[in-house]
Specification:
This protein is of the alpha/beta class. The protein is 48% helix and 11% strand.
Length: 449
């Protein structure tokens, strides 16, 4: 049967996958992975699929996550994410991205983060985007052009940020036009009501990620009184409709004890959260505050706790700083992703507010091979300790070098402060974290008996 399936078209395989998606049994999940294995040409992708199948057959706790998707999610959203993310982006997309590499000389990033608008009704302290002009917003034609260019590279997954994306009135027109893509939308959650939920059901290709700080006290302290209840209400609406959603956390010195607590993870699971996106506070944006940075000890604590949570909680965890060993270091500068702000500036990372190009004057394929992005990728290849991947807080001398390059400019007033006014502090932080991370890295490299 397997040999015969190799002759099937991708469309036929997708049809078979969707026909199996109604059951989350071990046998069905294993059969789905065998179908998926037929699509990518890269052996590394096939091996990852076989690894997932082994976890399924061993009933590894992490495999409860895909079971939740099949068991609990609205059929329209479930089928869209199987088709758009699993097939279009991860499986067929990798073939297209490999062809792009052979033709253009570099492998495309896996995603793009687009800040559509800077409109927001909150004034959270420490907001990384807090110093962009509030009136900035990309037109739908500009967003359409970006997404079309990404799909030409084989990229069918995009992250939408802001500001608050749901303030953009014609947001769902973008999702409808690019119905073959999967979208993750970072939102504060305060604008999601019954009407938005119905729109999310209709398009099927969007997953919200709610920004939280902890429980009600911590969230309201940063985002405003009553905001936590709005997020909980939005989650209830989505859960009731059978839609998936994520949590998003910025680790600070104030909330580390909460987001490393197993009881808090259980609270999120009870609320219906499917995945957790974890960032760390970087002193950029609104009133940079070094006291908000997680201490080196707190950062290492989160790293170790996420390892434990992945082995015990039916949730997907993505930790952008501590996952360096899993993804070979920093992913910025077009290696795995890049950021387009609401002014069209093409930035290396959502936290690195410098650019040398803008979508209004430079095609993406040229920006991705620019001297700025090329230099970033060269620096990434020189890093030895992948627990210290960041050019802002782990290797700040690299960030200062980038700012000094010809044609590179800060993308808002004060964006250069992390490289200038705070240079000594960033060097000190990098050194102190290195004293913890270097021994951990060396210990992890030792062969296990």
């Amino acid at each position: 049967m397997l040999q015969g399936l190799k002759e099937y078209s991708t469309e036929k395989i997708v049809s078979l996958l969707l026909s199996l998606a109604g059951s989350c049994s071990t046998r069905n999940l294993a059969r789905m992975t065998r179908l998926m294995e037929l699509i990518p040409r890269k052996e590394s992708y096939k091996e990852k699929i076989r690894w997932i199948r082994r976890l399924i057959l061993e009933n590894h706790p992490s495999m409860e996550f895909p079971r939740r998707i099949l068991r609990e999610v609205h059929p329209n959203q479930r089928n869209k994410w199987i088709t758009n993310l699993a097939v279009n982006h991860l499986l067929s997309g990798t073939n297209k991205r490999k062809e792009w590499q052979e033709r253009e000389g570099y492998y495309p990033p896996s995603t793009v983060v687009i800040s559509l608008t800077m409109k927001c009704n909150l004034s959270c302290y420490g907001c990384y985007a807090g110093d962009y002009e509030k009136g900035l917003e990309l037109t739908n034609d500009e967003v359409d052009s970006v997404l079309t260019q990404m799909k030409e590279m084989g990229v069918y997954f995009a992250v939408i940020s802001g500001g608050e994306p749901f303030f953009k009135k014609d947001l769902f027109e973008i999702f409808k036009k690019h119905s073959d893509m999967a979208f993750l939308v970072f939102t504060h959650g305060g604008l999601i009501d019954e009407q938005v939920v119905q729109q999310l059901i209709q398009v099927g290709n969007v997953m919200p990620a709610f920004s939280l700080e902890g429980y009600e006290e911590q969230t309201d302290e940063r985002r405003g009184t009553g905001h936590f209840k709005k997020v909980m209400r939005a989650m209830e609406l989505l859960k009731g409709a059978g839609l998936t959603y994520c949590g998003s956390f910025t680790q600070t010195s104030r909330n580390t004890d909460i987001i490393t607590d197993s009881r808090y993870m259980d609270f999120l699971l009870e609320k219906g959260v499917y995945a957790l996106w974890l960032f760390t506070y970087v002193p950029v944006g609104r009133e940079p505050d070094l006291e908000l940075m997680a201490t080196p000890e707190q950062r290492d604590l989160l790293r170790s706790r996420i390892v434990e949570f992945r082995a015990t909680k039916p949730m997907l965890f993505v930790d952008f700083w501590n996952d360096g060993p899993l993804i070979d270091g920093c992913i910025a500068g077009g290696r795995k992703y890049f950021h387009i702000n609401a002014n069209g500036d093409i930035e290396p990372c959502v936290f690195c507010h410098v650019a040398s190009d803008n979508i209004r004057r430079t095609p993406l394929k040229e920006a991705l091979r620019s001297p700025l992005f090329s230099r970033i990728r060269e620096n990434q290849g020189e890093q030895e300790n992948l627990l210290r991947p960041c050019m802002l807080i782990d290797h700040p001398e690299q960030g200062r070098e980038l700012l000094a390059m010809e044609g590179v400019y800060p993308t808002h007033g004060g964006a250069e402060a992390i490289f200038t006014d705070l240079a000594a502090e960033m060097d000190d932080y990098a050194g102190r974290y290195g004293e913890i991370a270097d021994p951990v890295w060396e210990e992890g490299k030792k062969p296990r008996r």
